[in-house]
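stage 2 :: seqdesign
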């Protein structure tokens, strides 16, 4: 059996993998990491969080286990997000987290190292690209290919990117919002805005602190965003949360409404809408006509924010559609890119491990 043929062989028993390697797609997000294994689909989705013991510099937990520690750890243990705004903030921790997820996905014992496709923000610099490549190569990968998040999202949505016709993607992730007009397997116009779901959480925390003199944690802010977060809401929803009163210093309960949260998110949403408008303004007229006909497609976790599609439509007068299962679009696109490596050579940034 040839080496290439070996890469297509997988274990069929539950929880068991053969040691012949597997092609992998990774959505390396600021908030979450999703892993796609060729032939099996998305097999893992966990927070990109590492818990570290500061006394001995050892990693205590990674992923969901580490996320549960946020705001609940003693002074010597710190929950860290090694990825910030879609790029590597802590190189060593990122390498560890990638190695951990690859090992958890396909097992520790591999005869051949896998080929890996990793998605990155469209505005990433050459230095940041090299950091992602090196971290992934050192994490037991044979070949690494980088694909932009809008391109991966377009593939994950099932769009035909090979035609001379425009598709506009807005991918709202945890750390960045990537806006791109795609035609003929390339990004004609693109912009990466350093605003995403994590910035929504921070805006909610600031608003509650400023308005109600109550401090809440990061996990509570995320819960508020998911349950009653809104960019435009016709129905006013309510949620009771717990925090610490900054005047008395005592724990307290607070009832929030979706209109409250809408106010807190206005600035972030305005910046995203302005970024979309800026891309539309410099899009060639023929492609702009295609966008008016097809509409804008929203992907990423931020696409699920209530009323965001309506606000973008009102501001741009362009139809707006939310992709099916927007949270996994980019990861599924990485998986499709594994089958199109030759066709996408012009838009992929790649590197091979030294033998």
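stage 2 :: out
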């Amino acid at each position: 059996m040839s080496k290439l043929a070996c890469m297509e062989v997988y274990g069929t028993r539950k929880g068991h993998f053969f040691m012949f390697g597997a092609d992998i797609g990774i959505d390396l997000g600021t908030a979450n990491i999703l892993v796609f294994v060729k032939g099996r689909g998305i097999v893992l989705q966990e927070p990109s969080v590492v818990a570290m013991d500061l006394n001995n510099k050892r990693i205590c937990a990674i992923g969901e286990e580490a996320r549960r520690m946020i705001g609940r750890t003693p002074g010597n243990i710190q929950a860290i997000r090694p990825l910030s705004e879609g790029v590597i903030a802590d190189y060593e921790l990122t390498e560890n987290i990638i190695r951990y997820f690859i090992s958890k996905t396909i097992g520790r014992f591999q005869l051949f190292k896998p080929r890996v496709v990793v998605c990155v923000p469209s505005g990433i610099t050459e230095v940041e690209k090299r950091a992602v490549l090196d971290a992934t190569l050192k994490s037991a990968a044979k070949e690494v290919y980088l694909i932009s998040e809008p391109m991966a999202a377009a593939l994950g949505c099932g769009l035909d990117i090979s035609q001379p016709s425009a598709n506009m993607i807005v991918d709202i992730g945890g750390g960045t919002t990537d806006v791109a007009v795609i035609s003929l397997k390339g990004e004609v116009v693109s912009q990466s805005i350093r605003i995403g779901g994590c910035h929504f959480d921070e805006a909610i925390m600031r608003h509650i602190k400023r308005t109600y003199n109550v401090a809440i944690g990061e996990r509570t802010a995320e819960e508020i965003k998911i349950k009653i977060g809104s960019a435009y809401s016709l129905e006013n929803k309510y949620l009771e949360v717990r925090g610490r009163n900054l005047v008395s210093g005592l724990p307290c309960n607070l009832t929030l409404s979706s209109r409250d949260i809408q106010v807190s998110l206005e600035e972030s949403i305005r910046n995203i809408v302005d970024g979309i408008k800026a891309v539309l303004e410099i899009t060639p007229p023929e492609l702009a006509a295609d966008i008016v006909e097809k509409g804008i497609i929203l992907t990423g976790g931020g696409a699920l924010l209530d009323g965001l599609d309506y606000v973008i439509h009102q501001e741009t007068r362009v139809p707006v559609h939310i992709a099916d299962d927007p949270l996994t679009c980019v990861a599924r696109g990485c998986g499709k890119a594994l089958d199109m490596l030759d066709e996408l050579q012009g838009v992929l940034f790649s590197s091979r491990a030294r033998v």
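stage 3 :: structure notes
- The chain has a mean pLDDT of 87.
- The domain at 160-195+265-326 is CATH 3.30.420.40 (Nucleotidyltransferase; domain 5).
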